[in-house]
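User: Teach me something about this protein's shape.
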Amino acid sequence: MPDCCNPSGYEKLFNSREAGKSLRLYDKNGLNRGAKRVVAYLKQQGLEGHRIIEVGGGIGALQIELLKAGAASAVNVELSHGYQEVATQLVRREGLEGRVEQRIGDFTEMAEGMEADDVIMNRVICCYPHLERLMDAALSASSHVVAATFPRDRILSRVAIGFENIYHRIRGRDFRAYLHPPKAIMETASRAGFEVAFNDSEFMWQSVVFEKAA
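Assistant: First, the predicted structure itself:
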């Protein structure tokens, strides 16, 4: 079965060209809607001094917004080297050198020993085949919040992901997208002692902030 965590497959899709596109979109439109809503919620709750881990952070735009809002530092964990150069340039452009660390690899294999106040996964769950492994890693690394944006379980989502995977197969790519059941995401967080604090839905995406129960 094709696995998105095959580094070569991931690197082919999420490359420097895609990084350039992401930067242009960020400069033109800012964050996508789900990310904006998550950032707004976290800002409202207070970010002063927080350490952030973003899984699959790409060029690091979401981290930049959280750092500007008061977070102390961020770690960007990416499977692909393709975003690294643009991410470094963006940190430098925003004057945030020394506050962002970039790590390359599978977060589920690196999470042991990593600690943060807040772990962010923006449109990442749908790119990883093993839901429970990814959620467990994020929940264990967080002392406060895990925020995730993922596809809603709708017919249109299933059709869109199905066509996307056909396209990747035709292009000879190993990458596949996944529609993990939102109910399973919620249940995994609940078992780890996290409660839903924020839940927002749009046409195709759902954004949820889980907070660790007191």
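Now, about its shape. The first strand starts at residue 51 and ends at 55. DSSP finds nine helices and seven strands in the chain. If you'd like, I can walk through any region in more detail.
User: That's plenty for now, thanks!
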